[in-house]
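Margin note from the TA: students keep mixing up input and output lines. Inputs are the sequences; the output is the structure of the whole complex. Example:
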Amino acid sequence: MDSSEGPAQRPVTLEIDGADETLEASVPPQTDPTEASFQEESIDLDAEAFASPQDYSTHTESLIDRLNDQMMESVMISDSPNSEEEDVVPIDSLLGQSEGEEVLESKTPDGDTEERKDDDAAEPEETTEPLLEEEIEEEKIAQAENKREIVPPDDSNPEAPKAPEMALEMNTDASPKEEPVPVCTIFSQAVPSKAQSLIPDGFQPTLVKSPSFTISSADTPNKLIPQVCQPSPSLSKFFTDNCVVNPASDFFDSFTTSTSFISISNPNAEPPKTAATPESPPQEAVPTSTYFAPVAAKPQVSPVEPVNKLQAVFSSGDDPFASALITSELDKRYDAWLPSDDTRKVLISVATQQISPVQIDREQLAMPGLKFDNLQCGNDLKQESKQKRNLCDLQGDAVKDLMQRFLGDQAAMKRQVLSANSVEQDFLGLKRLISSKNWRAAVDLTGRLLTAHGQGYGKSGQPSGHTTDSLQLWFVRLALLVKLNLFQNAELELEPFGNLDHPNLYYEYYPAVYPGRRGSMVPFSMRVLHAELPQYLQKPQETLDRLHRIKSVCQKILSNLQEGLAEDGSMINLTQDNRPASIQLWRSRLSRVMYSMANCLLMMKDYVLAVETYLSITEYEPEQSVQLLSGIGRIFLQIGDIRTAEKYFQDVEKACQSKGKTPDEDTSVLMNRAFVYLSQNNYADAHVCFSSVLKLDPKNPVANNNAAVCLLYLGRLKESLGQLESLVHQDPALYLHESVLFNLTTMYELESSRSTQKKQALLEAAACREGDSFNIQCLKLA
Amino acid sequence: MQVKGQSSGVDRMDVNQAKQEHLLALKVMRLTKPTLFTNMPVTCEDRDLPGDSFLRLMKDDPSTVKGAETLILGEMLTLPQNFGNIFLGETFSSYISVHNDSSQVVKDILVKADLQTSSQRLNLSASNSAVSELKPECCIDDVIHHEVKEIGTHILVCAVSYTTQTGEKLYFRKFFKFQVLKPLDVKTKFYNAESDLSSVTDEVFLEAQIQNITTSPMFMEKVSLEPSMMYNVTELNSVASGDESESTFGKMSYLQPLDTRQYLYCLKPKPEFAEKAGVIKGVTVIGKLDIVWKTNLGERGRLQTSQLQRMAPGYGDVRLSLEFIPDTVNLEEPFDITCKITNCSERTMDLVLEMCNTRSVHWCGVSGRQLGKLSPSASLSIPLKLLSSVQGLQSISGLRLTDTFLKRTYEYDDIAQVCVVCPYTSPES
């Protein structure tokens, strides 16, 4: 390559010029490029370089160092643990790579003038990689900025002009599809600096019932005015207003009928003044599912309805329907929990009316509030506001962003996902978002609903009442944050809940609202989630502590039940049917906790205890023993202990035989065999086993994927690729999974230099099907 | 992660203008074992707000274990996500793919993969014959394996030569550098069982401390001592209980990162060597440790230590060892011991045995007895009688051998210990 500079400057070390010329690529040094000639030549070269670096030590740096430095670059091999970032490297490293070649082959330690520059650019190995990555990051940001700059003209105007649109939308009941565009922008723009301003506030002026105004009888006109006349709703107004408000109750068309009436706002601060709307779930009335429609419908019912009426309902407590449900056995069974002694004392004194909840020290109460605002409307936010939201990556729809980058705005426009705005503002809408895998939007919606409940942004530390529904919302929100890997956010928002044992998290604390109801408002699943969270934040010990606490309560409740007592140890008699049902429930909860413990131990790599715990679960879940034993076997394979793994796999075979299946017909047996072959480096037989699973169960995604992986290890890249590719295209529902996509993109990268186009095709496929929670990193496009 | 190299498919503003674009692309990916996908279960109960939607999501997720969705360790294999570490004794496997990126048929493709270590260069290609032609969008695939035997920098050198349709011969190379690290730290220590009884006296105990200095757990499949020809070895790392012998390391034979484990071996000289001279002098080769471990999904590694050497304890010119001694004796009752005296020097000795009483041990018989001439390597056994006047664990001391030729005296104290008991208070009397 350096032929121009070469001859003059080159030191005498040139046994290598052969290599040199070859790199120039046009003509191999020897006319016959037989391997012998290569070998010789390269041996000379490298042997020299490696064996006698001191020969060149006269030069500023020893050649070998330089070689290494240069090579570093060219080498993609690195120990960087971060795969995604790794993937970024190829192109740049390419550049480096060719440098490496040049240097190596031209061996012109003296060509310093030129090479120095290269060196500077390249820098020592350790730093280069990070550098590359950083550069890329910067690029990304730059691109993102570009995008932002481009986007606004389209649809984001200053707030004022927006408002009419919004009003319009309200009236016209715009279809959900078009919706995300303007509506969201208003809020996200209005909101930016103050994370406080949660979008819903802006949206639902109608629903906002400030304390003053509910008390001094609802004035509907007032509500409508800000919405229609005021172009950009004054934030301050809403914020001041909403502090004690509980419009959420309107939306809480609850999932458990028993609680649908009893959304209360702040029992300890104010008299309960919920707008109870015992009407049918709003979404039925509201086909288009805009946020406003229900609002329009409801005001007639709820706000007008005097608060006192509601109170009357509660205080009298003889609404037969409600109380029947409230005291239902089912509730008792599910809500049972054993509070700590301190909490129990407080609850008893509340129940016996020794103290009123108002007198209880705030320190003892759980006062949660949102800690960050929306996840999904990141799209439409300005860059600055995005930066202000310092928590994690609250990007919006990452798939869309990626499409914009790689496929252009046009393609990105086609991407349609549900947003928090495009569904019913209630539990049904929430469920829709969850099952369509739009978890970011779902988190946003929980935020709105919680804000409506008075536990919105900045409300942490302020007293607010809890209801069954509000805690369910919190649970869903936190669960989704965990599913989205936004662990820090989840931790932050869980923090005010302490260890989920505050008195105001129990029904006994609200005797007026939940007469006669006992137990924990915190759903059991939320306790498990609360316990599991720390392990994702490198605090597995904390997770184990919490799980053990839950486990001991479960065991205590079970022993109460077995001794003929009620769950909480009281003497209340359970009916014949209820006791076994309750025992069954609590056994399943116990096994759920054990699962969490075993999983946590496995993450901690405490294999001994993990295996023990998984084994003990088989007692509770005998029907899962095949899966558990196979799982334990896989743990041993992971450690490398094949012999012990085989023992467990034999147990699986026995279990299968006892079910009357021959081992060859059972997928898990075949799968296990395949894993053993795999661990013996016998990819051919492993492939046979996975293929025979496919004969039994042609749609088995695991076997399909694993068979393809085996093919790669057998040196059959094209076949492997073809198999995976056709699977993804034929059955995207099953195969657009991050593990499969990751494998596929990895093989694309291995196959050719044009992997990016193929990855983009995958992106398009994903964009059609996947919600905003799709993990784009598996595409390795960034 | 992936070891990727790419041909000069990128135009660089180089001194010599844009380089010619190669028709072929070379990609390399290290094939470490695949990993099992772990999922993250988030569950709720039927009565919770999401209803069955969480469960349905988990059931629809192909990576979960059907029927036990809460189990995090799934069955889905994922390809290696990064290059990872490679350790001495492991096998370096790599996929080499040469892909025809162009739209023309390329001929006479020769792909060669060499591994350059600091000391040698190895050819790893499975075949060294050229592929006659490669159509567009087609690949030449090769999977190479190499057991890594050196520490330090390794460079995988991949060379591709080919002929274009126009008959132009082209050639390019790619370099992939990686470091081979040390997986284990092995420390050994010898213990001489000198004061032991009988002919066992030449037993040597080897304690080997093996530390996992990688970052992943390691299953120790085999840690054995291969003795040199002079020794027989007994492994002392399991406790026999009935038919099954249980490892001293517990049920799970794996080593967490930075964990150290101690293995113990007992070496006995083979009779033919033990007899010879009765002693093994100077530096002896004991043997070497053979270690086989496995990590993720059976990724295997094997190492042998260099020959372990031991400096045999110096016995001086005359060695006195015990062939017989009771462990328990009665107070003030004479008992017998048998001493073995070996001439370890190169010359003949003429020995006189003296016996000096100590505070507790009293020798019976004549002190200053002539033992006669003892030629090199020869030994003789002498029965002696003595009694103890003090109860408890008593040390036998006070033997003196004098070589009358050189007028040199050798002192033997603390030869062995006996437990002295009072017969009248012992339970059986």
